[in-house]
Amino acid sequence: MLRKIYLAIALIAFTYSVKAEGYAVNVQGAKQTGMGHVGVAINWDASSMQFNPGALATLDAKYSLSMGGSLVWSNTEYTNLSSSALNTETDNPIATPFYLYGSAKLTDKLAVGLAVYTPFGSSNIWGDTWAGKYLIQEITMKSIYIQPTVSYQVNDWMSVGAGLNIVYGDFKLNKAFPILPNPTLPPSATNPIIADGGAELSGNTIKYGYNLGVFLQPTEKLNIGISYRSKVDIELDDSEGEGTFSFPSTVPPALVAGYKAGGVTDGTFTATLPLPASLNVGFAYQIDEKWLVSADVNFVEWSVYKNLEFVSKDAAALNSLNKRDWDNSMTYRIGAQYSANEKLDLRAGFYYDETPTNDKFYAPETPGADKIGITGGFSYLLNEKFSIDAAFIYSKGEKIEAYDTNTRSQGFGGEYQNTAFIPSVGITYNF
Q1: What is the pLDDT of residue 24?
Q2: Which of 75, 228, 238, 296 could form a disulfide with 333 if both were Cys (CB 3.0 to 4.6 A apart)?
Q3: Cα–Cα distance for residue pair 162/56, rounded to 1 Å
Q4: Is the pLDDT of residue 2 over 90?
Q5: Could you read off the pLDDT of 32-47 as tens digits, one per residue?
Q6: What span is annotated as the signal peptide, if there is one (predicted)?
């Protein structure tokens, strides 16, 4: 029953898909996004639960509500270095990551809250006929975090907090496979590909993690924050992962039967996709009544993503092991806020995001590269309690030449380049 309740919450909240570096999504607050998505050392409102649970107890407001979402236009261009006729780009849908935070102070020192947000996800649609169709045609990965949180102010300069992460994870992968007159031999002039079949893998599950934070205020102008969000392994068991195969009607029934006899048949599978841990350190300094500056450093433990493996006990063709061997990565963020008047705050920021991907096992399912992001935004206070928040990100990755040396990929690769534009809007209500 508990599983069904959590799943219903996730679906009602509306699902999303978005491509980002690795498969992390960094738009968990419109105010923070406008400043380069800093936030570990900032205590504006209930959104602190995601950035640093320790900051929640330091809010001045007894109750705080913050909600919003983003529209993500993302694109990856692929350049084949042997033939320009094979060049293509993704046709990704507009993605809609979101956040919802609510908190209450039970005493002067104790606060509680509930957060729903979307820190991981990826969507790439390469199409049915592109050069890498036997590796990937379409992939969508989603995660929704539901986080009940408690925070306590230990003394005048330090507070701590913790949240339980209830994580709904979902993925779907489509790719083609070649249909040959003799399935036991590779494609050749005497064993030509006569059609393409289709394979779809999908599954969803619920797992758990945690989010911890310490918030320090050594002076009236300086805040320091440290937070840690744990790794969550999205593990699918035989009841949660499903694989299906499809054959064109033009393929002779006897050949279809032969493929099915060889294991190309529907079945269940197990798989694990890690959502990595992150350690985040930040500071914020109020220069004067007009200017606030802040900087964060995020260390992300992407090295946990060693392999993408599917194991099936009843459909041999679903079995695969593809090395990924990603590296740990760092993201560096800096932002500033200028209070133009009593109602209007203006924001700008910049970040540099290192890619964790390995150019020897580089897969178009999650094409990555070192990238920069330029951000801006504002908040307008409609009254003393209610504000409208808006922000944008323009992100561009460096062009990278990389290949996948896994056996099934046969060295597929070329040049990739990612771009994204992300406007965000939200509201904040403190009372």
Answers
A1: 65
A2: 296
A3: 10
A4: no
A5: 999 999 999 999 999 9
A6: 1-20
Query: Quick one: average pLDDT of 240-269?
Result: 93
Q: What is the pTM of this model?
A: 0.88
CA distances from 64 to 57, 144, 286 (A): 11, 21, 22
Element (H, E) at 271: strand 267-275
Both tokens of residue 109? 């020192």
Residue 200's identity, in one-letter code, is E
Task: Say how many C-beta atoms besides its own lie within 10 A of residue 82's C-beta.
Answer: 8
3-state secondary structure the chain: CHHHHHHHHHHHCCCCCCCCCCCECCCCCHHHHHCCCCCCCCCCCCCHHHHCHHHHHHCCCCEEEEEEEECEEEEEEEECCCCHHHCEECCCCCECCEEEEEEEECCCCEEEEEEEECCEEEEEECCCCCCCCCCCCEEEEEEEEEEEEEEEECCCCEEEEEEEEEEEEEEEEEEEEEECCCCCCCCCCCCCCCEEEEEEEEEEEEEEEEEEEEEECCCCCEEEEEEEECCEEEEEEEEEEEEEEECCCCCCHHHHHHHHHCCCCCEEEEEEEEECCEEEEEEEEECCCCEEEEEEEEEECHHHCCEEEEECCCCHHHCEEEECCCCCEEEEEEEEEEECCCCEEEEEEEEEECCCCCCCECCCCCCCCCEEEEEEEEEEECCCCEEEEEEEEEEEECCEEEEECCHHHCCEEEEEEEEEEEEEEEEEEEC
Average pLDDT over residues 100-128: 93
CA-CA distances (angstroms) from residue 75 to 34, 325, 401?
22, 24, 17
Domains of the chain, first to last = 2-430 (2.40.160.60)
Q: Where are the alpha helices (DSSP H) in 293-414?
A: none
Which residues make Cβ contacts (< 8 Å) with residue 46, sequence separation at least 6? 56, 59, 64, 65, 66, 101, 102, 103, 113, 115
User: How many other C-beta atoms are found inside a 10 Å radius of the C-beta of residue 190?
Assistant: 8
Alpha helices in 13-152 (DSSP H): 30-34, 48-51
Does pLDDT of 382 surpass 60?
yes
Closest-CA residue to 41 (of 31, 54, 28, 29):
54
Joined tokens for residue 100? 């919802």
Pick the range with the lowest mean pLDDT from 235-239, 321-325, 407-411.
407-411
Which residue type, as a one-letter code, is found at position 35? M
